[in-house]
């Protein structure tokens, strides 16, 4: 609950204000404690100074297996713990294997200690050295290449290329976890945002956009899987239409991401609005391809229709990034 305090002057030139006692008690702040002030535009955020360099967390994993255990490790990672202790009366062999697999799928994590009743993993990266901008840009590059290669795998009946697309999805997921971890750190601590050199609002925009890129990669993976189910490449007319649809969707994503990263607000607004207009054109192109598929046998038409839908949805996700870019470029109240 917000409290109002009156600013006073002491010593003729020093402004002072008291802090709420309940807050001080809850955060172990007492006489002699050190606090740090973080200026944020017209606000001033106060936080206690902690002597602990790394945050530690523990989780009881008795009964957790497979995907449930893997997600638990990822959740602790995204939540920002530097040292994670996974404990049980007895850690089974399957649990150890799952924990190692989860650790290997996350950037910076390594198993530090293993005993009969616990496994300790630690993040070896310095969060202040991570760049949320670079992570999102890397996601853009991978997701865009995946989408193009997935369509090419379908067009050329290239199973090896399709399998490569499927494997690259793990890289995008790994980067998304990094972005989520950094973003949540900025929510908890103003110091984290200062170390990044970005306002928390921008970190939010990057995290929202990273989620859209992760979905684009998911649809590229879906197209790759579908291309493996289609025994022969589609007719040239359909292939050409799908390639054109992909090029249009890729342009939406490129314009939207360029708008998000633009330094000038006018340029960001121009690119974002261009991306939004292109999404409308893509909807019409997708309907035209669906008309072409009416002459195919139902099973084949359904598979190709799902590919059209994935390309169209990828453009929609680019449109969502464009909306985020517009909000980022808007005047601050």
From TrEMBL:
InterPro entries: PhoU, PhoU-like_sf, PhoU_dom, SpoVT-AbrB_dom
Domain SpoVT-AbrB: from-to ranges: 9-54
Organism field: Halolamina litorea
Protein name as catalogued: PhoU domain-containing protein
One protein family per Pfam: PhoU
């Amino acid at each position: 609950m917000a409290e109002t305090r009156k600013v006073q002057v002491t010593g003729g030139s020093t402004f002072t204000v008291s802090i709420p006692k309940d807050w001080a008690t809850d955060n172990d702040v007492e006489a002699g404690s050190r606090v740090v002030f973080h200026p944020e535009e017209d606000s001033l955020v106060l936080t206690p100074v902690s002597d602990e360099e790394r945050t530690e967390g523990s989780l009881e994993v008795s009964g957790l297996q497979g995907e449930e255990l893997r997600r638990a490790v990822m959740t602790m990672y995204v939540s920002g713990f530097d040292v994670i202790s996974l404990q049980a009366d007895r850690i089974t062999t399957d649990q150890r294997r799952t924990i190692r697999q989860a650790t290997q799928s996350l950037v910076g994590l390594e198993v530090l200690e293993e005993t009969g009743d616990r496994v300790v993993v630690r993040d070896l990266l310095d969060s202040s050295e991570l760049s949320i901008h670079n992570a999102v840009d890397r996601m853009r590059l991978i997701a865009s290449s995946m989408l193009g290669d997935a369509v090419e795998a379908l067009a050329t009946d290239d199973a090896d290329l399709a399998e490569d697309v499927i494997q690259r999805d793990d890289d995008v997921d790994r980067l998304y976890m990094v972005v989520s971890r950094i973003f949540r750190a900025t929510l908890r601590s103003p110091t984290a945002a200062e170390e990044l050199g970005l306002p928390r609002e921008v970190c939010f925009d990057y995290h929202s956009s990273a989620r859209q890129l992760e979905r684009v990669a998911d649809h590229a993976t879906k197209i790759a899987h579908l291309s493996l189910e289609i025994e022969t490449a589609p007719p040239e007319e359909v292939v050409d239409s799908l390639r054109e649809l992909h090029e249009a969707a890729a342009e939406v994503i490129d314009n939207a991401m360029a708008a998000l990263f633009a330094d000038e607000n006018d340029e960001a607004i121009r690119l974002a609005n261009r991306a939004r207009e292109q999404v409308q054109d893509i909807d019409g192109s997708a309907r035209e391809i669906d008309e072409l598929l009416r002459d195919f046998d139902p099973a084949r038409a359904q598979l190709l229709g799902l590919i059209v839908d994935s390309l169209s949805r990828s453009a929609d996700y680019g449109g969502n990034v464009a909306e985020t870019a517009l909000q980022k470029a808007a005047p601050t109240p």
